[in-house]
Design the sequence.
């Protein structure tokens, strides 16, 4: 056997060892590449979880939410303002030629956050996030009204699903409870007198009505939050077209929201004098402020890496996160009707997001075709 033949005959165990050494590394590399290719999704999922946890914390602390917001908005305003003014050297009060859009962005962004918190006084987080998620549908309807977009069959289907979902998710609990108490007569209660039964029934109706009034006040505030968010989306769309920096927009809205939170806190203490919970304000306020900054950073990274419509669909998981947190910490469960209603609302948003994605794709292909048609003429 020649020396060349000996070099060609490599032992089998050597080949298998080399393959075993290369396979795990290449497998892990492929996994990393695939995860990195869709890193926008992971940023969005992480941001949603952090946002839900940061919001849910407010339900567990013995302090007023708006007192906590004073510190939270202070932290955000300082960070956004410092970044925009000292690092990027932007004018913090520049409207970039869009004064109306800038004013709407400030008012609607503040209104979205503050009405969301006000609704959280009266609603479970799952109900609040479900109603808030309807902003995608309202934004599409408002675009038809203000931006002269064409109202399509898809918009009608999404609007119908949203209305049906809202009815199912926010069903009149007090009617169901009242009727169940009225008609649920067990054998042990047969001897109760008519007067006692009437008084008990009346007290049930009154207590249920009080609970219902607060619940639907929360529903109304949550609807206001979703509507203002839809208007905010349209205003920000106009500002993005003029290259208005996100840091400037965020500073303007957090500074205005800080002023509103301070005013509300002072006015509330005129009727209910009480000391400020400084300990909770600083510890929880700084924590939530930092969590919101992380969330904003992750949202920005997600927008750079993934399609907006896909991220909007992922946002529906906020409802699921809220249900899980409520069950873990409060042992609060929801009825099947709520999940059906939430599914209708999520489906409406998904339909609109897919339709917008297809429209944008067609528009890009059309622009690409026009560019290709112009290039041969230029070359000639």
Sequence:
């Amino acid at each position: 056997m020649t020396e060349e033949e000996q070099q060609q005959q490599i032992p089998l165990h050597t080949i298998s060892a080399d393959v075993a050494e290369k396979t795990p590394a290449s497998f892990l590399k492929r996994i990393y590449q695939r995860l990195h290719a869709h890193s926008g999704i992971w940023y969005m999922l992480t941001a949603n979880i952090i946002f839900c946890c940061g919001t849910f914390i407010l339900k567990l602390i013995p302090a007023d939410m708006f007192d906590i917001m004073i510190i939270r908005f202070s932290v955000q305003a300082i960070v956004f303002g410092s970044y925009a003014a000292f690092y990027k050297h932007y004018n913090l009060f520049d409207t970039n030629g869009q004064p109306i859009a800038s004013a709407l962005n400030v008012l609607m962004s503040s209104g979205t956050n503050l009405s969301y918190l006000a609704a959280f006084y009266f609603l479970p987080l799952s109900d609040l996030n479900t109603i808030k998620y309807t902003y995608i549908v309202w934004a599409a309807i408002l675009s038809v009204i203000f931006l002269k977009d064409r109202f399509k069959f898809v918009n009608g289907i999404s609007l119908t699903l949203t209305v049906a979902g809202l009815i199912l998710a926010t069903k009149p609990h007090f009617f169901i409870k009242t009727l169940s108490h009225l008609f649920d007569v067990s054998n042990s209660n047969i001897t109760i007198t008519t007067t006692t039964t009437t008084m008990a029934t009346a007290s049930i109706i009154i207590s249920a009505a009080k609970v219902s009034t607060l619940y639907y006040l929360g529903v109304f505030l949550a609807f206001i939050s979703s509507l203002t968010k839809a208007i905010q989306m349209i205003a920000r769309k106009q500002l993005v077209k003029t290259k208005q920096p996100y840091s400037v927009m965020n500073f303007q809205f957090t500074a205005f929201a800080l002023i509103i939170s301070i005013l509300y806190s002072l006015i509330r203490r005129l009727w209910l004098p009480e000391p400020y919970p400084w300990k909770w304000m600083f510890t929880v306020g700084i924590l939530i402020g930092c969590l919101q900054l992380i969330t904003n950073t992750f949202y920005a990274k997600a927008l750079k890496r993934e399609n907006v419509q896909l991220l909007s669909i992922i946002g529906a998981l906020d409802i699921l996160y809220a249900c899980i947190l409520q069950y873990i910490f409060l042992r609060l469960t929801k009825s099947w009707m709520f999940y059906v209603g939430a599914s209708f609302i999520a489906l409406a948003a998904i339909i609109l997001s897919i339709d917008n994605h297809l429209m944008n794709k067609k528009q890009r292909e059309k622009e690409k075709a026009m560019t290709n048609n112009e290039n041969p003429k230029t070359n000639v």
